[in-house]
Amino acid sequence: MNSPPFRDQTDAGSGCDLTFTATDIEARYIIQTIEQWLKGPVQDPEPRTDIVIAVSEALNNIVEHAYARQSPGPVKVCLYVVGTSAFVEFQDNGHPLPDGEPPVVDGIDLSGPIETLPEGGFGWFLIRKLVRSLRYERLEGRNRLVLEFAIVPDQAS
Predict the structure, then answer these.
(1) In order of start, what are the domains of the chain with their CATH numbers?
(2) What are 74-128's pLDDT values in tens digits?
């Protein structure tokens, strides 16, 4: 999986830049805003749905884990489209990802009684299944995650 680029801050391409405080209520509002914005550049509802699901999971991780045991802080979300890809970049000042990278979850065993299923671990599994690629870095106390999505079918597949 190739790593998507971090957006050059001088890039004047069309996009949607949002900043909010990492709370459940504000995250829900941001997800709704992103869903509406995507209707412009992403005509196909299937990739739009994939993007919204992955963004929801990433924002949930930021709210629940990056800012765990501290006051909710700022989150910046940038969306932009380049060619056949949609990119969503997240930036926050919360705790870094464990081991300095997004977890790799190969699969989740759903067999057995429902009460034995894990409470978590589905988010990164879903994100990795929905993206074309992802990239994470921790720089100067700030987390940066970029998710890349195919918005038209890959011709190489």
Answers:
(1) 15-150 (3.30.565.10)
(2) 999 999 998 899 999 999 999 999 889 888 777 666 566 766 555 556 788 889 9
pTM for this structure?
A: 0.83
Sequence-distant contacts of 130-135: CB under 8 A, at least 24 apart: 130/50, 130/51, 130/53, 130/54, 131/54, 132/1, 132/4, 132/85, 133/1, 133/2, 133/3, 133/4, 134/1, 134/3, 134/4, 134/102, 135/3, 135/4, 135/5, 135/6
For the chain, give the percent of residues with pLDDT over 90: 64
- Dihedral angle computed from the Cα positions of residues 51, 3, 129 and 63, in that order, rounded to the nearest 10 degrees: -60
Q: How far apart are CA 46 and CA 31, in angstroms?
A: 16
